[in-house]
From TrEMBL:
Polar residues composition bias: residue spans: 43-56
UniProt cross-references to Gene3D superfamilies, sorted A to Z: Glycosidases
Any Pfam family hit: GH113
Coiled coil: none
UniProt-annotated stretches for the region Disordered: 25-56
Organism encoding this protein: Streptomyces luteolifulvus
CDD domains in UniProt: GH113_mannanase-like
Protein's UniProt name: Uncharacterized protein
């Protein structure tokens, strides 16, 4: 998830809905599992995670970092995801580069250590973004060989950092639909990552991308950013949202069997705005708060999937923005912190 994702669609949705009222990868439904030990999917364990993204070089060194990690742990979460991000200027470029919005390596190492000290396991999920409102799924480099060469250097840099800091799981990419159909090049990327990092690997496919990924069997887990629209109108009816999940759940169970991999929701989340479940991928849907809808969506997802042996868990998007960095007011943002959705997590995950 990037701040600019589906900005155009979000603007349309804002107009339409502004006044709305209403361990490891391989697994089977019979519970058998195989592959290397460790990670959230070992046996039948399920990730209970929350993402703490960064938007600045110094975010992870913020004085708020320790408090955020303690608060995440207090929900009952046992995992946290960090998202260092590099950028490319245009969709067709072949070069990736750091900016002042890229988390510094020193701060990233420090936040991993702090997470471990707080009793949290870590998934490192490096992102590539475009500037402004452009969607990373639109990246289509004019020279694929050059782009993948640059990408391989970018991702193995973080694979080294993950290995050095004891990160428990690693994502080789996120929502790169414009290039994710390239089996041969991604296989080479994954091989390079495995040469640098020994832990479980996934790729975070968008919910409308995952069926087109040809390289799941090269990875340990199927990763899906689970932003399926669940309703045509705003609702805080948990039973209605659970019913909306039923056909999706059946499709995912069949897909997990077919690919012989468990499915991890590498992201899932809902803004606390009315209409959130109509477009969970959108940062801006309504100017009206929707705490009840956000909480119902959290409850429906967990009640729909928890305990399914092919499901490896969820990493919610996202915890608080850093002080002075939030573009969306906290009361309308994805964070569940201080809202009924946080209480849902505490109840479902046994937090305190």
């Amino acid at each position: 998830m990037s701040r600019g994702t589906v900005a155009t669609m979000a603007a349309v949705l804002l107009a339409v809905t502004g006044c709305m009222t209403d361990g490891t990868a391989r697994g089977h439904d019979d519970g058998t599992s195989a592959s290397r030990p460790g990670g959230p999917a070992a046996g039948t364990s399920q990730m209970r995670g929350i993402t703490l993204p960064s938007w600045s070089r110094t975010d992870y060194d913020s004085p708020a970092a320790g408090r955020y990690l303690r608060d995440i742990r207090a929900t009952g979460a046992r995992w946290v995801t960090f998202t260092p991000t590099w950028y490319q200027k245009r969709r067709t470029d072949t070069a990736l580069h750091r900016t002042e919005e890229t988390a510094g390596d020193t701060s990233l190492r420090r936040i991993v250590r702090r997470a471990h000290s707080a009793g949290l396991k870590v998934m490192l999920k490096p992102h590539v973004d475009l500037p402004g409102d452009a969607d990373r799924a639109e990246i289509r480099p004019r020279d694929r060989d050059a782009w993948f060469g640059t990408y391989r250097r970018f991702i193995t840099h973080y694979a080294d950092l993950a290995a050095d800091t004891g990160v428990e799981q690693f994502a080789v990419g996120t929502e790169l639909a414009g290039v994710s159909g390239d089996h041969a090049r991604w296989t080479r990327v994954i091989k390079a990552v495995r040469d640098h990092y020994d832990g479980p690997l996934t790729y975070a496919a968008n919910y409308d991308e995952y069926e087109g990924i040809p390289f799941w069997k090269e990875l340990d887990l199927i990763g899906i950013d689970a932003y399926w629209p669940l309703s045509a109108t705003a609702t805080h009816d948990t039973a209605r949202l659970r019913r909306a999940w039923e056909p999706i759940r059946e499709e995912l169970a069949a897909y997990a069997r077919r690919e012989d991999r468990r499915i991890l929701f590498t992201e899932a989340g809902y803004v606390s705005q009315q209409g959130a479940t109509t477009a969970p991928y959108a940062w801006h849907i309504s100017r009206r708060t929707g705490n009840a809808e956000q909480a119902a969506a959290y409850r429906a997802l967990l009640e729909s999937f928890t305990g399914r042996r092919w499901w490896a868990g969820v990493c919610w998007w996202m915890w608080d923005d850093w002080p002075d960095s939030g573009e969306t007011p906290a009361k309308l943002a994805y964070t569940p912190h201080g809202k009924p959705a946080e209480e849902v997590l505490r109840k479902k995950w046994g937090g305190r």
